[in-house]
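Re: that chain you flagged

S.,

Sorry for the slow reply, it's been a week of failed gels. I finally had a moment to sit down with the sequence you sent. For the record, here it is as I used it:
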Amino acid sequence: MGVKLSEVEIIGVPLGGGFGGKDDTANLICARTAMAAKLTGQPVKMTYDREWSMRESYKRHPYILNYKIGATKEGKIIALKCHILADAGAYASMTPVVIWRSTVQCAGPYEIPNVHCDAVGVYTNNVYTGAMRGFGSPQVNFAIEQLMDMVAEK
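Prediction finished late last night. Pasting the structure tokens below so you have them in one place:
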């Protein structure tokens, strides 16, 4: 915008932990604020109410999970196969890192000698998704715990 870096002042408000929520969109807000300040010649303060925050911010990745588990008659789990389909929305954003984390945690805290997991992020016409607290873990943790309940019942 033709402004020297020494002429730019950004006053940030302490917000606490990021939990992934400040990884992507801060640059968009900063760019809009800088453009408004440049066009008006005045300092600009930008705040989002809850509605705009919900409209503008990315959401957690919805997953379609397909698990297959192998166990002995005694209940010892010996194999797990998992396929993850992650809805990235219109932009990849943090999808590659989020689904990588899901593959790492797909078996939960359980010691399973044979694990195979494929994770795929797909573009859709949904709202784009990004890093959220848990970073790909809540989806697979929920799935593996439900699966363990089913195995225990059998």
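What I noticed first: The radius of gyration is 21 Å.

Talk soon,
D.
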